[in-house]
Amino acid sequence: MIRPIWATVRKIEGLPIAAVLATLYGVFMVTSPEVFTGHRIYMSFLQTVPPMLVLGLGLTFVITAGEIDLSFSAVVAFSGFVYAWTFLHSGSALLALVLALAAGAFVGFVNGILVAKIGVPSIMATLAAQFFWAGLTVLLAGGASWNIKGIEGSWIQTLFVGRLFGSVALPAQALWALGLTVVCWFLLNRHRFGEAVMFVGDNPNVARVMGINVERTKIKLFTLNGLLGGFAAVLLTTEMNTFWTTQGEGYLLPVMAAVFIGGTSIAGGKGLIVGTFFGAYIIGSLEAGVVATGIGGYWTQLVSGLVMGASVILNIVIGDGRLAAVASRVRHWSTTAEEN
Amino acid sequence: MVDIQKRFGLVQALRNINLEVGTNEIVGLLGDNGAGKSTIVKILTGVYSASAGELYVADRQVNFRSYNVQTAHRYGIETVYQDKSLGDKQVLWRNFFVGREITNRFGFINVKKEREIANEIMVNTIGFRGEGITVDSTVSDLSGGERQGVAIGRAMHFDAQLIILDEPTVALSLKEVRKVLDFVHKIKDAGKACVYISHDLTDVYEIADRFVILDRGEVVASIAKTDVRMKDLGDFMLDYAHGRRGLSK
Which end of chain B has fewer CB atoms within 10 angstroms, the N or the C? Predict the structure, then answer.
């Protein structure tokens, strides 16, 4: 009787990782109730996590296709630069937005060409891209950070990072990131492109003989990731009213961690958008949560490592049905001896 | 195929291949490793294009420049590969329709319809019943024979006129080979043509109407089943493998 329920439960995408997030918040509520029972801390997460989540969504596609992208943190800097520069020089927020997205998409497109057409392994191509675009940004900006105070009160600020519902002050970027999560879920799970991504990641030879254009799929994939990187840069830069040359640097490892603890397979072929969503909130909440418990900032990394490890194990055991596989293997080992 | 040639740089993989497959005929394509069997398959199915020569499908000449896997599918040519027909981690309904999904005009997949048809194929065409396999099973849960069954069922569903089986029984247990051969009999019964590639003579002999033997990129013989016994066919191939030519009757 437990089996069918268990099977249904296992099918719910991202459930293990959602449970980890809930547990985490539960623990934080016990250890520091004064912080975690009020709504302000959550509003703060809803402000800081969205850029990370948007980056994670793009990376989920890339990893599902069996590739990797290390350049998105440089995209956050480069697109942020393009955004700030255009806004300061033209005064047009719309132009700034369009060019920032275009810049991100361009970086991604170049990555895609390098990987798909020239055949450079993606880890190498995007590592080089990471240095190149981050370096170019520093060069172009002269190493300086720019204040874009002029954006305050503009429509773009209200639209992307405004505070909603009066005193609740829900950051608009949280809704944008949520909306994008839904769009990306449909794109990966219900669209022809997403299916191509999964088959390419599963086995590019199969994809090819089934008529999928593997090269074009990869180029689209990296371009999409660049575009989302550009959008993350817009969210971040607008929220902070400032562009600074190192603004993407802290994102590389946390975003990868968010995708992996979300259950997306590092081997390719399987990606969980819902997992990435909860993964991003877990990673984004850990530091503040650990600090708030009062055990001290030195513990943050250690606890982060523990939570990541636990999430990944939970995903393997529950999500992949590995538990059933292990159980049947044990049964197999214990019965073959009698049969022979 | 008329005078088909294929070069890879300096290597001439195929020279002057002439091959015809009749309606509802099962041709066994035989030859040692490296004889060019797989290259022929890839040209037929649009994965490679030929360096020279002509290809006709149902008497219509194929333009190699625009010929690819999708056009081959449209012409009714389907392929079942030894190990690269299905995505291992993907559910079966996706595997049935990958590359030609049923979508709306924005490219979104009609999952309900794909699952319905996939289920139809599995029950009626392949004959999976009560084996615990559903359209939501992932390929990695299937045995080797079942996988080939899925691939063959898929080919038949898409109304293939010619189904190419590229070493479908390699690495399968005898019981699984039996299953695959039963699927191939279904192809014949359905009035479709088939090219069956193998270097296992016993499989091919059972199902093929005619044998085409390749050696080093050339067709060296085309023999109807009625004209040859299995042992002679085996000896003939061995002669080629050892570089001794000629039919030893």
Answer: C
